[in-house]
Design brief:
- This protein folds into 2 domains: 173 residues, 3-Layer(aba) Sandwich (Beta-lactamase); 111 residues, no CATH class.
- It is of the alpha+beta class.
- Helix 2 packs across helix 11, helix 3 packs parallel to helix 5 and helix 4 packs across helix 5.
- The protein is globular and about 60 Å long.
- It has a 7-stranded mixed sheet with strand order 1-3-2-7-6-5-4, with helices on both faces.
Length: 333
Amino acid sequence: MKKYPALLILPLIVCLFSVSATAQKKIVMKKSALTGVQKYEPLALENSPELQTILTKAVGETLNKFAPKKLESDNLAVTLIDLRDAKNLKMANFRGDAKIYPASVVKMFYLVAVHQWLKDGRLKDTPELRRALKDMIVDSSNDATHQIVDVLTDATGGGELSPAELKIWATRREAVNRYFKAMDYADINVVQKTYCEDLYGRERQFWNGGKNRNMLTTNSTARLLAEIALGRAVSPEASKQMLELLKRNPYKDSKDLDSQDIGFTGIALKNIPNANLWAKAGWTSNSRHDAAYVETPDGQKFVLVVFTEKFANEREIIPDIAAKILQELRGKN
């Protein structure tokens, strides 16, 4: 074997190490550029004793009102954020850190992710993509959500996979999770599609007997909706487009008790002329949730997220809390 002087070998090792380090740095930089979070600053939210008093009172009165129907504190989670002063955001919560299955409210997180992927060049903006986005948010279509999750993650449904294959597939499916956790949304799990019936094949494997369900807190959900309302989600223009899809009409003439316009927080606004509502609701046989951004003519601007469990058919709980909060806030003007 030919021997080389040590003085020649050392520069060669240094050179190889430098090339490897440079390549690694490029990979990291590329990954960072695709996440769109390198310049992100978390929304500054301050706990407000005044808002907490209002929220605690509203929740307490609602619990008392529905006590004959066995409503208990464990069936509720609520977060309120006052947006009147964008530079001094106040919040309050009731069980706001409880992890709860979010039903279709999770679609709001997929909406934000799509706009980030578009900004980063990871998705091509097409009429079909926009059609799926609209149907997912406006109509709460589960089929449209399947399409959106597929294009976000490139982890589509299909037959069962081997453990090794499933691990690779799962890494792709967790792309949206990684994006939000990079922005300090640490208490969420946004990896599953939404279904009308059941999961099959690799989707059911990944669901892992329910241990890997989608989970949100009202705190994180309210924070995200506040980001959108303030024009901070992805970009001001992207946030504007998201709000257009989230816009609801609380005065709509409809008999649909599950209408996102008049079936949730919108009920509390029907007697307040010219109020504005942006929202994403979610409901299953066990859950009834709403994430709402409300503006009233007298200057109220707030995000209110209410999750309820085991009371899916009780239509009045969410608007009862909203109405009580509105009354208190408007009375302090």
